[in-house]
Amino acid sequence: MTYTGRSRLADFARGLTALAVFLFFLVGFPAAMYAMGGSPIPDRIPSWEEVSATLMRQDTDQRVFLATICLIGWATWCLFIVIVCAEAVNYLAGRSRPAAPRPVRPLQELVRNLVATATLTFSAVASLSASASATAATHTHTVTADAHPAVPDVGSLSPRQDTPPREPTEAEWTPLLADEPTAQPKPDHHEARTHVVKRGETLWGLADRTYGSGDQYPEIFKSSRNIDQPEGIPALTDPDVIHPGQRVRLPRPNAPGGTPSPSRPASPRAGAHTAPSEQGKQSGTRAPTPPGSTSGKATESLVQSPVVAPPAEHSNSPAPSTSIDLDDAGSPLAISLPSGSRIGLGLAAALSVAVAATRLHRRRRRPLKSDPEAAEHVPEPPIPAPVLRARKAHLDTYVVREAPVPSDPELIRKDLLTPEPDHLVVGTRDGQAVTIPLAGLSLGLSGNGAHAAARAIITELLAKAHRYRAEVIIPQPDAQALFPGDDITDLSTAHDGLTLKSSLHEAINHLETELLRRGRILETTEQPDVAALRADDPAEPLPTVLLVASIPSDNARVDALATLGCRFGLGVLVLGAWTSGTSVELATDATVTNTDGPNAARFTRASLFHLTTDDAAEMLRTIRTATGTEAPSPANTGPTPESEAPSAIVPPPRPSEGASRRPVSLEVLGDVRLSTADGPIKTGLRQRARDLLAYLALHPDGVTRDRASADLWADESPQTVISAFNTAVTNIRNVLRSTTGLSSPMYVIHSAGRYRIDPDVVDIDLWQLTGALADAQQADDDAARIRALTLVADRCAGEFATGLTQPWAEAHREFLCRTVGDALVNLARLIQEDDPERALMVLEQAITRDPYSEPLYRHVMRLQVRLDRLDAVRRTYGLLTARLDELNAEPDDETRKLASSAMRTSNRP
C-alpha cells in the first residue's frame, strides 16, 4: 500500500500537531507556570511553625490550594523531563526501553507516542521517495524470462531424468506470504532480504507472515537496528514502534544470524542438505549449500501460533492424562494424549474451531422449549474426550498469555480470516518444530509408524480444509487402511475437502485434471502461480490439494505432478518408500529411524506427530459435525466430561434466618470476580482460587476435595492437586478476611468431607439466577411464573466463567445457555398476548445470548408478522442469513417459507 497525497498530508498534520504538543510540554508549560505562579524554588526554607500555621489557617484566599496545584504541576513537569531524558539515553545507547512503574507508565506512553507521531512530520515526505525506490528495486529484480508454461502437456508428465537441475530461485527461499513477487533471480546467499515498512505493519506481523510465527520478531529487530534509513526516516530503535518508509532486514532462513523459516522449508534445489549416504546418488550439479549450514543440521521451523509456555507447575509435574511438550523457547509445541497419540498445536487449534462450530450448529437446530411441561431436553451426542483435551490445550495458550479466551462465536469469526494452509507442522526435532510445505510436497512414509503419522497429517489438513481451503484425495483402499470403519466415508459425503476415489488410477486422473484446470486459469489471469492468483483474486476457489496414496516408486505420472506442484498448489504424500522424493522410515512411536532423499536431513532424529485409529475416528466425527451434519455416535462410548453436564437446575441454599446483608459477592456470570462493599478485589486472589470458586458455585450442596481436584486439575498428579486445592482454599480465606476485616467466617466451609461456599457471607449471582429459574419451575400460576422469569431476564448477565477452559466449565456454559434461552422464550410466550412489544424485547435478548438459534429467529418473525411489521421480518431474516453464513450454512426451508410469505404480503397493493 502506497501513500496517497491525502494520507501524506494527514500524516504531516498529525506529526506537526504532536511536535507542537511535545514542545509545549517541554518549554511552554514551565513558562506558563512561571508566569502564573513564579519560581517553584522558595527564597528560603520555611520553619515548621510557619508550615503548621499556614495549614491550620482557613484558606479563604485559596493561596494554599493554588500553591498545591502549582507544586503538582511542577512535579509532573519534572517527571516528564526525567522520562524524556531516560528515553533519549536508552535511544542513544541502543538499549530496549523497559516499562516504567505502573503509576508512571501512562506518562511514559505519552512521551513515546508524541515522539513517534512527531516523526511523521519528516517520514511523510520521505515515504514517497522510499516507496518509489522500493518499487524501482522490485522492477529491477523481476524476472522477465524463463516463464512457466501456462498449460502443461499431460503427455509430457515424465520423470526429470534428462533435465539438468535448475538454479535456485528467490521463490524457493523467500518466506511465504511475503509482499514482494516470488519470481526473482538467485539471491546473494550472504545478504538478507530488505523490506520497506508499509502503513499498519508491525514487526510481529512481518515475522508471522515471513516465518509463520510472530515470536520471531526479535530476529528482525536485531538484524535491522543498524541498517541505514532513507533521509528523514528515523532509525529503528524500538521493536514496538516502526514507521512507514523504514527499512527492515528479513534474515534469510539458515543465513548467518538468520532464523529458520517455519513458513516454507528450504527447497532441496535451494541448498537443502543431503544426507551423507546420498552424496553419490545426486545427478547433475547441486546448488551450493547456504552459508552457516552444516550437513548434520536440517532447516527447521518454529511453531505457527504465537504462544508462550504454560505455568511451571504444568510443565514440571507428571501429567497422567494430557501432557504438553515445549520448544526451546518454552512455547507449546506438541500435545500427548492418554491414548498414546501425539498431535501439534495446529491440529489442536483446528479441532477447537470444529468443537465451536459443532456446538453452534446444534444451537442452530435445537427446538425451543417454550412449554415448561414439555419433555426433558434430549442431550446431543457428547464431544469425544480426545477432542476436548486438544481444545483445552489450545485455549490454555490464551490463558497463559493473559489474553481473553475467545468464545465459540469469536473462534468462528477468527476462522473466517484464516488463509489456505500452505504448510503443516508435522513433528519435532531437538525442541523445534519440523514443517513440510504442501505445494510441491513429495514425501514418502514407511515403517510401523507410517500410517499413524499419515493419519495425523490428514486429520489436521481436513480440520483446516473447510471453506475450500484444502482438499485431500485418497483412493478408497488406502482410506480404509488408514481409517478403518465408516467415518472416513461418512465424512467425504459432508466435507468438501475430502475426495475418495475408487482406485489410484482414478485419484491420479483427478489430480491431473485439476492441474490442467489450474493451468488454464493461470493462463487466463496471467498469474505466475496459484499463490499469486490467490493474492490477486481471493474469491477464486483454488484449495491446496494433497494426494495421499500407496504409490509404486517408479510412477512417472505422480513424480511429474509433484514436480509441478509448487506452482499449481499440489502435493503428494506416499504411503511407503518413495525414491522419487524424500523417504522417511518411522518406528512404531513415529520416531524417524532412517531417511533418504533431497530433504532427508530435515527429518533426521525427528519425532513425527501420530494418531491412533480410535482418536482419529473421534476427530473425524467432530470434523463432520462441524459441517452441520450430525454423525452417529459409536456404541459403547464411555462417559465424557461434556456428557456429565447438569440436567436440572439445583436450587441455591437459603441463608440462615437472621443473616444480615452478606459482606462478599461472587460473580461467575462473565469473568470470575470477588467484590466487597468497597468494590472488586483486584489483588491477592490467585487464578486457581478463582477456578475453585467458580466450581464450588456450581455445587451449592458441596463437593469432595478429590472430585473437585480431579475436575479442576485433571492433567496433574494426585499429590500435586491435593496441595493445590488446599492452597486455593487458604488463599480464598486469607484474601476475604483481609479485605472484609471479618476473621470469624470460614467463607469456604468444610463439613462431612465436603467443601461448599458459605451462603451466609457470600452472595453469588449464579445462585440468584438459578433461584429465579427454580421459582419459575415451581410457580403455581402464570403471574408468579412471569415474575420469576422476569428476574431471570434481569440476572442473565453473561456466560458462565468466560475465562475457564476446563470441559466441566464449558459443559455447564452450554447447559446454562440452553436453560436461560428456554426461560426467555417461555417468558415471551406468556406475555406476548398482553404485551407483544415487551415480548419482542425479550426475544431479542435471547438472540443476543444465542445468535445462531434459527427457531428463535422464526419466533421473532412470527411475532413481527402478527404486528404487521413486514419490513422488520426482512431485516430479521437478513440478520439470520448473515449469522448462518459464518457457519457456512443457510436457513432451512421452514424459515425461508416464513420469510417469503411475509415478503409476498408486503408487496401486495
TrEMBL record:
<dbReference type="InterPro" id="IPR036779">
    <property type="entry name" value="LysM_dom_sf"/>
</dbReference>
<feature type="compositionally biased region" description="Polar residues">
    <location>
        <begin position="314"/>
        <end position="324"/>
    </location>
</feature>
<feature type="transmembrane region" description="Helical">
    <location>
        <begin position="64"/>
        <end position="89"/>
    </location>
</feature>
<feature type="region of interest" description="Disordered">
    <location>
        <begin position="363"/>
        <end position="384"/>
    </location>
</feature>
<protein>
    <submittedName>
        <fullName>BTAD domain-containing putative transcriptional regulator</fullName>
    </submittedName>
</protein>
<feature type="compositionally biased region" description="Polar residues">
    <location>
        <begin position="626"/>
        <end position="640"/>
    </location>
</feature>
<feature type="transmembrane region" description="Helical">
    <location>
        <begin position="12"/>
        <end position="36"/>
    </location>
</feature>
<dbReference type="InterPro" id="IPR018392">
    <property type="entry name" value="LysM"/>
</dbReference>
<feature type="compositionally biased region" description="Basic and acidic residues">
    <location>
        <begin position="368"/>
        <end position="379"/>
    </location>
</feature>
<feature type="region of interest" description="Disordered">
    <location>
        <begin position="225"/>
        <end position="325"/>
    </location>
</feature>
<feature type="region of interest" description="Disordered">
    <location>
        <begin position="140"/>
        <end position="196"/>
    </location>
</feature>
<dbReference type="InterPro" id="IPR011990">
    <property type="entry name" value="TPR-like_helical_dom_sf"/>
</dbReference>
<dbReference type="InterPro" id="IPR036388">
    <property type="entry name" value="WH-like_DNA-bd_sf"/>
</dbReference>
<feature type="compositionally biased region" description="Basic and acidic residues">
    <location>
        <begin position="186"/>
        <end position="196"/>
    </location>
</feature>
<keyword id="KW-0812">Transmembrane</keyword>
<dbReference type="InterPro" id="IPR005158">
    <property type="entry name" value="BTAD"/>
</dbReference>
<keyword id="KW-1133">Transmembrane helix</keyword>
<feature type="region of interest" description="Disordered">
    <location>
        <begin position="626"/>
        <end position="663"/>
    </location>
</feature>
<dbReference type="InterPro" id="IPR051677">
    <property type="entry name" value="AfsR-DnrI-RedD_regulator"/>
</dbReference>
<feature type="compositionally biased region" description="Low complexity">
    <location>
        <begin position="255"/>
        <end position="272"/>
    </location>
</feature>
<feature type="transmembrane region" description="Helical">
    <location>
        <begin position="110"/>
        <end position="130"/>
    </location>
</feature>
<dbReference type="Pfam" id="PF03704">
    <property type="entry name" value="BTAD"/>
</dbReference>
<keyword id="KW-0472">Membrane</keyword>
<feature type="domain" description="LysM">
    <location>
        <begin position="193"/>
        <end position="250"/>
    </location>
</feature>
<dbReference type="InterPro" id="IPR027417">
    <property type="entry name" value="P-loop_NTPase"/>
</dbReference>
<feature type="compositionally biased region" description="Polar residues">
    <location>
        <begin position="276"/>
        <end position="304"/>
    </location>
</feature>
